[in-house]
Structure of Aspartate aminotransferase family protein:
Amino acid sequence: MSFSIADLFTQHFDEKFDLHEHYLNNQMVRVLRTIGYDRNYKKAIGQYLYDEDGNEYLDLLSGFGVFAMGRNHPTIIKALQETLTLELPSLVQMDVSLLSGLLAKEILATCPDNLEKMFFCNSGTEAVEAAIKFARYTTKRSRIVHCDHGYHGLTMGSLSLTGEHIFREGFGPLLPECTSVPFNDLVALEQALSSKDVAAFIVEPIQGKGVNIPDDNYLPEVERLCKKYGTLFVADEIQTGIGRTGKFWAIEHWGVKPDMILMAKALSGGFIPVGGVAMTTHIMDTVFNRMDRAVVHGSTFSKNNMAMAAGLSALHVVHEEKLVENSAKVGEDIIATINAMTPKYEFLKEARGKGSMIAIEFQSPKSLGLKAAWAMLEAANKGLFCQMILIPLFKEHRVLAQVAGHGMNVVKFLPPLTLTQKDRDWIVNSVEKTIADTHNVTGSIWTLGKNLAGHALKNKK
């Protein structure tokens, strides 16, 4: 009997939530069903998802940034199909691979000129783990400095650098000698570095949790302070890189040259997990300094042909379709258009971001009736107002988005870089209609708000 994924998908299409309840994380199923996100998606093309009834949804999550080129891009599919049929040798461990060499060359051509070497792994969190090890070995120091509210991954080393308490709770003790400083605070950073025992400062150029953008002088001063105190400057571009912010690398907005750039997500083309670290020759040659240390750090599946082909084809699509430029243009338009709404809507504080990394922040209004309604939600659970935005966006407008972080009133858009004028209009019109509805405290959206508050208070008990 032949084996067919298509047949399996057809035969079991209606079973996915039951399968997850029985064999995987049933709490995720509960969340989806509670907020009405339990859809059966049947197809995905570009920035769109399609459910079993043929309804089209605009995906502004893009797999947390994985699908920067959109889902199921035909160029990337063709490259992977071709790689499968060539019968190439892959993962010949007593050998080096051609495709990884080509991908390294392509990536480094996009990086600052001080970065001349690449290390490949399987994910963003593996890239962070590699950076920790490389920094410690290169500097012969042990401390790692990171930022409050930063996010760097969930394996033990990267989790030790992740600032959100909810991710860390109960998993300790974590990696020792990891120090947190406030983001965008140069005084605190210099105080931490001045002891001259810090191996690396690892920072997101724009923080993903909250979409926090630094002052113009922050990253240039970070570079200067790291050089002054002998600390390696590591830019975590796992989410911000490869066109996300309207530049190929977010660091380009500030013209800095870190000692390492960490990457993953979009490099996969949305198909094969791949991560990487771009670094100086000094770091590479220090870590891999003798023949008996040639395999001192690595990963079994890194540099596999499918991952490298995915990366090469993804970079081709980014350049060929001018997705960096499109990200900058459409993203700037969306941010400016939403900011122009602030005089009309008391709940709306601001839109911010760069390129296709966009945040919409909400605030307590001045009108007494609206202020009381806001206070009711905040008392039940801080940040609950955002759910009152996101659920109607999804149910009524078929726009899929997320909260930017725990306990904050910030909605985040992280769409594919392929958005069109149609998508831009879809987004701003849906956002305005939803925000306008929140200013009618007798409307149905506040019935949803009261229900959300009730559930939150019940869960607290």
The two ends are 54 Å apart (CA to CA).
